[in-house]
């Protein structure tokens, strides 16, 4: 496979707008279906969601999916059919494994302030696993101007939470202006600029909401132009092959 770097700008993503939700989709999702944009590597969903105060997603089902939610600002209340209840806030890693089937709801925990979060989905290695839930605070580690492994199924990683996929890992970094990180070498990378503005080596400037899809990534560096936050999926397999 020849190495590739494909930049996807924020303005080019599909958008869902309702009275309480503004959501930008990096891949086909819901009513927005594009047969040429269904995934990258193992990543199926990368939704950038803003939910109005006292609103959110009512109880709904999921099955055979690893769902990672990363809050950027505000607070998101989670409740599911396994009895898990809690509030997800910035710096708290959370993963829900839908497995054989789970019901859950996600609501803005504030009556006055919006909540902004990114939700990401990858499939598990095996279908039909038992539903599972995990969360872990890692906020302090994110202040180090380096990549922090949020969730991983890759055995060599020391991750805050686990994924039931041996070829996928999510890393995050909060970067001060001028700070840089080296991206891992991997067959597939997906870099999402959650906040701020960064520069990707040999690819140029990336603004909030922009994403980069890399194949055969070779250790490029990302440097922050402003105070920034990036989410990086490292993947060692591709759906369907």
TrEMBL record:
Q: Which residues form the Quercetin 2,3-dioxygenase C-terminal cupin domain?
A: 159-235
- One Pfam assignment: Pirin_C_2
Q: What is a single molecular function from GO for this protein?
A: metal ion binding
What residues does the Pirin N-terminal domain cover? 12-122
Where does the chain bind Fe cation? 60, 62, 104, 106
Entry similarity comment: Belongs to the pirin family.
Q: What is this protein called?
A: Quercetin 2,3-dioxygenase
Q: Which organism is it from?
A: Mycobacterium intermedium
């Amino acid at each position: 496979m020849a190495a590739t770097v494909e930049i996807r700008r924020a303005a080019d993503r599909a958008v869902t707008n309702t009275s309480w939700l503004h959501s930008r989709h990096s891949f086909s999702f819901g009513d927005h279906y594009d047969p040429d944009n269904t995934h990258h590597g193992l990543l199926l969903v990368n939704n950038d969601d803003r939910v109005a105060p006292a609103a959110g997603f009512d109880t709904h089902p999921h099955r055979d999916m690893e769902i990672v939610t990363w809050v950027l600002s505000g607070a998101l209340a989670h409740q599911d059919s396994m009895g898990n209840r809690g509030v997800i806030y910035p710096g708290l890693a959370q993963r829900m494994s839908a497995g054989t089937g789970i019901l859950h709801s996600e609501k803005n925990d504030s009556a006055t302030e919006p909540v902004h979060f990114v939700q990401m989905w990858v499939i598990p290695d095996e279908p039909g696993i038992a539903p599972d839930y995990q969360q872990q605070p890692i906020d302090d580690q994110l202040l180090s101007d380096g990549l922090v492994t949020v969730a991983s199924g890759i055995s060599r990683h020391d991750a805050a939470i686990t994924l039931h996929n041996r070829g996928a890992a999510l890393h995050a970094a909060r970067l001060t202006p001028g700070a840089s990180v080296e991206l891992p070498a991997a067959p597939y990378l997906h870099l999402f600029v959650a906040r701020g503005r960064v520069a990707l080596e040999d690819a140029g400037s990336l603004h909030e909401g922009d994403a980069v899809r890399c194949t055969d990534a070779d250790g490029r560096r990302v440097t922050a132009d402003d105070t920034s936050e990036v989410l990086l999926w490292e993947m060692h397999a591709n759906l369907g092959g």
